[in-house]
Design goal:
Blueprint (H helix, E strand, L loop, with lengths): L11 E2 L9 H12 L3 H20 L3 H11 L2 E2 L4 E2 L4 E2 L7 E3 L4 E2 L4 E2 L2 E2 L12 E2 L2 E3 L4 E2 L4 E2 L4 E2 L4 E2 L4 E2 L7 E4 L4 E5 L1 H11 L7
Parallel strand pairs: 2-5, 3-6, 4-7, 5-10, 6-11, 7-12, 10-13, 11-14, 12-15, 14-16
Antiparallel strand pairs: 1-9, 8-9, 16-17
Helix pairs in contact: 1-2, 2-3
């Protein structure tokens, strides 16, 4: 459990993608893979698609945060979510956004991969948690892939594709994203000046 009280879910394997399913088979297949009642799965799927649309287009940040929470995304306090942000719609409960983090417009956070079965020898169908740590900043149109943790007060520059964990107080850039700066000393010193009573930041 982290400082926000989030209980981080463990990674797990999921079924490979299946084609040519009827709506009924799709619902039964999805319910079985999640081990829930088919009616409940159908309701959650429809609800999440509606909330996806509302959360992407809502004109106010507190609405976008609320809609994403209702969808299942774990969100802390004072979080900013830009318009047209896409949070994984199949497994939103595997996304954790801590206090004072920012995810800017057009970014995507993906938690699962379920390729076709003919890729089984090289790709594992799985869902992995993504965590955006306290104070982290994800700039516009960035993509965060499954299993990634964005460290405290780190910065992901615009249009980056992040497939590996990001250390705290780092700036990363590009596709694939790589470290371009470490501003830990500068930021921590600035925080101490602004908060002289806090010696251990």
């Amino acid at each position: 459990m982290n400082k926000n009280g989030f209980q981080i879910k463990d990674p797990k394997k999921i079924p490979y993608l299946q084609y040519d399913k009827t709506i009924k088979k799709t619902i039964l297949y999805g319910a079985e893979s999640r081990k829930i009642n088919p009616v409940l799965y159908a309701f959650k799927r429809l609800r999440n698609y509606l909330l996806l649309f509302l959360s992407m287009t809502a004109p106010f940040n507190n609405w976008r945060v609320r809609f994403n929470k209702w969808k299942g995304v774990n969100i802390g306090r004072h979080v900013y979510i830009g318009m047209f942000v896409f949070f994984d719609n199949a497994y939103p409960e595997y996304i954790y956004i801590e206090d004072k983090a920012t995810v800017n417009a057009g970014s995507m956070i993906i938690t699962h991969l379920n390729p076709s079965a003919h890729f089984e020898s090289i790709l594992t169908a799985s869902v992995n948690p993504v965590t955006i740590k306290e104070g982290a900043f994800v700039a516009v149109k960035s993509i965060i892939l499954p299993g990634v943790t964005i460290g405290e007060f780190s910065i992901v520059t615009a249009g980056s594709v992040v497939s590996k964990n990001v250390e705290p107080y780092n700036i990363i850039r590009g596709n694939p994203a790589v470290k371009v700066a470490d501003f830990s000393a500068r930021l921590k010193n600035g925080m101490r000046k602004n908060n002289p009573e806090k010696e251990n930041i």
